[in-house]
Each structure stands twice: as structure tokens, then as C-alpha cells.
Amino acid sequence: MRTLLLPLFFITLINCSKSGGEKYSADAAVSEIITEDKALPPPSSISEKLADNKASPNSEMKTDTISRKIIKNGDMRIQVGEIKKAQAQANEILKKNNAYIQKEEFQNSDLDENLNLTIRVPHKNFDALVNSFSDGIGSVLSKNISSDDVTEEYTDISIKLANKKLYLEKYRDMLKGAATTKDMLEIQEKIRGLEDEIDVAEGRLRFIDDRVNYSTLNLNLYKEKVRSSATSKIGFGSRFIDSVTEGWNSFVSFMLGLISLWPFFLLIPVLVFLWRKWKSRRKK
């Protein structure tokens, strides 16, 4: 009987030790997971790169898919015969190229008339618009066209924006498991800062997209009231009428200037009277 009980006792003892060891290892694993979860620190700065992001091929694919971003701008100054007629021609050109006027400013002086237009046109129609203005309205006095490649800036902002959004999601997950009020306030402050930076970055990307998709042309339509034959394509009749008008305006200005001196004309008789009186006394 003793010989049967001893093996049974040893077998029972071995099973208990195994189950206890398994239980201990399971508890240790859970404890380790909890410890690791609690010890996970928040990102120390916004510019910190995530290890998963560096090794991820998706980020490289995103940068590769970004097309080139070219911003085109132009300035043109055109001398015309009549501002109203030139403006009507410009409106027809704008309609053909799906462009629109963003800003309009008119100035009229004694020497010239100026109509300044800020025009926004789809990127693909920019060259056609410039050529139409060069050929069909008047004499081009100056033209300046520039292209600015902002692909690098756009790509850099896009990558940083993607990383900030990852950080934001990580902070939000950490906020759910925050244990103390102090931790909650610190994480909420980080979240607010990230949200502000994300809004700024998205606004900058929208601005770049707008400037890329729609080019800007600053157009000045210029009419010289006193024209020289070297710079004008207008006929003799128009120049003769302008000269007559300018001469009449000069005469009117002269007469108005004389009229403005009427107080001095009133002093002349007084001065003459006093001079004669003084002369007569001197003779006596």
C-alpha cells in the first residue's frame, strides 16, 4: 500500500508545481505588459520621427505621388487708345480662357489713365492668356513672367503634416488611459498645440494648391493723354483732338489761377493811391 501511495504523491506534487509555474509565468507576462504600457512615454517633440514611419514604404509612396508644384506669375503693361474699348476686349479674352478678375483699380490724372487688373487664370491657360493680351489689345510696354517651383516645400509640409496627425492620434489614445489629472492636462495641452500646427500646415497647403492651380497676372492698361509719335500707334486725328483738349485745359487752368489771385488785384489800387499821396507830400 505504501508503495502505491508514494508514486501517487510524487505525481500529484509534480502536477501542482507545473500548474503553479504556468500561473506564475502568465501573471508575470500580464504584469510586464501593464508595466510596458504605463512606461510608454509621449513623444518628446513634434519634430520627432516615429520608427515605424521611417521604415514604412507608404510614406515613400506618398512623396513619390506628389506632382510638381509650379506657381506662375506675370506682370504686363499695355498702352491702349481707349480704356473702355480695351477693357471690353480684355473681358472677351478672360471668358475664352476661363479667367476672372480678382481686383480692379482705375486711376485718371491730367497726363494719363490707368486700369489695373489682378487676373486669376487656370494654370494651363496662363500662356494662352498672355499671348492674347500681347497680340490683340495694344502696344506692350513691358512684360515680366516668372515661375516658382514649390514642390520641395509642399512635400516637406505634407510629410510633417502626416507625422503630426500620427502623433495626434497617439496622444488621444494616451488621454483615454491617463491616470491622473496632471497627466490629462499635459496631454490635452499637447493635443491643442498639435491641432493648431495641423491647421496652419493644412492652410499653407491649400494656399499653395490655389496658387498652383490658378496663376496670377497683373495687367496694367495705360492710356497716355499727351502722346508721342514714337510710343503711340494712334492716328493723327486722335492726337490732334487730344492736343486741342490739352491746350484748352491749360488755358482754363491759367484763367483759374489768375482768378485765384483776386485779393492781390484789389491791393494794386490801394498801393497806387498811397504811392501818389506820398509823392505829393514829398514835393511840398
Return the structural class.
alpha+beta
CATH architecture of the domain at 70-149 and 215-224: 2-Layer Sandwich
Our estimate of the beta-strand percent is 15-25%
What is the CA-based Rg, rounded?
42 Å
Low-confidence stretches: 1-8, 13-64
Shape: elongated
The rounded distance between the terminal residues' Cα atoms is: 178 Å
**Total of DSSP H or I helical runs spanning 4+ residues:** 9
Whole-number mean pLDDT = 76
How would you write the strand order of the largest sheet?
2-3-5-1-4
Helix content: 55-70%
Number of strands: 5
Please name the CATH topology of the domain at 70-149 and 215-224: Alpha-Beta Plaits
How would you summarize this macromolecular structure in one to three sentences?
With 284 residues, this protein is an alpha+beta fold. It is built from nine helices and five strands; from the N terminus they run H-H-H-E-H-E-E-H-E-H-H-E-H-H.
Notable traits:
18% strand; 9 helices; 284 residues; DUF4349 domain-containing protein; five-stranded mixed sheet; DUF4349; single chain; alpha+beta; Alpha-Beta Plaits
SSE blueprint:
Blueprint: H1 2-39, H2 51-55, H3 57-65, E1 70-79, H4 83-96, E2 100-108, E3 112-122, H5 126-136, E4 139-149, H6 151-176, H7 181-213, E5 214-224, H8 236-259, H9 262-283
Parallel strand pairs: 1-5
Antiparallel strand pairs: 1-4, 2-3, 3-5
Helix pairs in contact: 4-5, 6-7
Domain DUF4349: 68-276
Keywords: Coiled coil, Membrane, Transmembrane, Transmembrane helix
Organism: Chryseobacterium lactis
